[in-house]
Amino acid sequence: MEFEGIVIRLTPFRDHDAMVTVLSSDKIRSFLARGALKYESKSGPSVNIYTKSRFQLMRGKEGYALRNGEILDSFQNIKTNIDCLAVEDFLGELTNKLIQSDDAPEIYPFLEKSLTLLDKGFSPFTVALIYFAKVLMVSGYSLNVDSCQICGKKDQIVALSYKDGGFICRDCFSPLKHAKWDVNKLKMIRYIFKVDVDNFNKVDFPKEDCLVLINELSKFIDDIAQLNLKSIELLKKI
Ligand SMILES: [Zn+2]
């Protein structure tokens, strides 16, 4: 079997072996890579975390095992920048905790694009925020950024309520339950949920604005799915 994809998890196993999990454009696959953790391993570099490679597997007694791996893109520049490394870690945690094999066709282009943009030096916090929104959408935790979540009206939107799950219009706004959002913040959250993979790098948001929304979305996912994203702490420190 031959396929290409991005390594999203590498778990050491026995002495120098590793279990490798790869996200591809069709599904998620796991396989054993014998000797991958040995210094002189030929295919070892192809299973490094967040590397895009082409893999050849063979079927063995313990399931699929790596026969050969060839690096397509190691996104080497990411490794030289601390902000990018922290974002890469965040993308990985989101993918591992929220993405199921069935979601692979939808999310794969966004992970590939995110790593490519980070590697090219595009704003790491914008990448983190947009990928976060895409993972929420694909995994079924989206927010309604098209119309008022209560009455369905498309204009006079004044807030977004995480508790209600989307936009709130002027008529449905209740000062006891909701807090008003400024227009730019409303535009920004709509943009990150709506933007497609080709236009991903059209807008570069300020780091502080990105961190505010990343924080809010992480509280939202913690409330709704009891999911605590550990890598956010590192993002806040840089
Ligand atoms: Zn309304």
Number of strands: 8
Overall radius of gyration: 20 Å
Provide the β-strand percentage band.
Answer: 15-25%
- Spatial order of the strands forming the largest sheet: 3-2-1-4-5
Identify the overall geometry. elongated
Bound molecules: zinc ion
Which whole number gives the mean pLDDT? 95
As residue ranges, the low-confidence spans are: none
Number of helices: 6
Number of domains: 2
Report the helical percentage: 25-40%
In terms of topology, how is this protein built?
Blueprint: E1 2-13, E2 17-23, E3 28-33, E4 52-60, E5 63-73, H1 82-98, H2 104-119, H3 124-138, E6 144-148, E7 157-161, E8 166-169, H4 183-194, H5 207-225, H6 232-237
Parallel strand pairs: 6-8
Antiparallel strand pairs: 1-2, 1-4, 2-3, 4-5, 7-8
Helix pairs in contact: 1-3, 2-3, 3-5
The structure holds zinc ion.
Residues 148, 150-151, 153, 169, 171-172 line the site of zinc ion (ZN).
Verbal overview:
This protein is α+β, with helices and mostly antiparallel strands. Helices cover 36% and strands 25% of the residues. The chain contains six helices and eight strands. The strands form two sheets. Strands 3-2-1-4-5 form a five-stranded antiparallel beta sheet. Strands 6-8-7 form a three-stranded mixed beta sheet, with helices on one face. α2 packs antiparallel against α3. The chain is elongated. The termini are far apart. The mean pLDDT is 95. It binds zinc ion. Residues 148, 150-151, 153, 169, 171-172 line the site of zinc ion (ZN). Zinc ion (ZN) is lined by residues 148, 150-151, 153, 169, 171-172.
